[in-house]
Amino acid sequence: MTSNTTLKIEHWNEMVDGPLNENNMRQKLKSQGYDCTRYTFGPGTVFPDHTHGVSKKDSILKGLFRFGMCGQEVVLKPGDMIEVPAGTVHNAAVVGSEPVVFFDAQK
């Protein structure tokens, strides 16, 4: 991937997906063909540059999560879902004093 790649961020649409909650997020990801695992990351958690062997979709249920990939950086908020292609270097960190509740989704 090059730094010109646009980050693919999907935002929660309450009109389509219903209220943002754990059950609805899990159901949405499963309907897109993903298997998902729920994690909670405490304040101060940092994930330095790394890659994965599979394509993923990182999905935020609660909290703020700084995410860097392809020379770009965004702060993901509840309801945001970002595609992470296999082999793409990325990093992330919890922002602020609240934990992040997160779905790690893979196909």
Element order, helices and strands?
EHHEEEEEEEE
The Rg value, from CA coordinates, equals: 13 Å
Average predicted local confidence, pLDDT? 94
Walk across the major sheet and give the strand order. 1-7-4-9-2
- Beta fraction: over 45%
Query: What is the count of DSSP helices, taking H or I runs of 4+ residues?
Result: 2
**Helical coverage, percent range:** 10-25%
Major β-sheet profile: 5 strands, antiparallel
Q: Which parts are unreliable, with pLDDT below 50 for 5 consecutive residues or more? A: none
The number of strands is: 9
Our measurement of the CA-to-CA distance between the termini, rounded to an integer number of angstroms, reads 20 Å
Note the overall shape.
globular
Summing up helix and strand content along with how strands pair, one would put the structural category as mainly beta
Quick take:
This protein is mainly beta and 107 residues long.
Characterization of this structure:
The structure is a single chain. The model has no long low-confidence stretch (mean pLDDT 94). Helix content is 13%, strand content 48%. The chain contains 2 helices and 9 strands, in the order βααββββββββ. With 107 residues, it is mainly beta.
Give the helices and strands, then pairings.
Layout: E1 9-11, H1 14-17, H2 22-31, E2 35-41, E3 46-50, E4 56-62, E5 64-69, E6 72-76, E7 80-84, E8 90-95, E9 100-106
Antiparallel strand pairs: 1-7, 2-9, 3-8, 4-7, 4-9, 5-6, 5-8
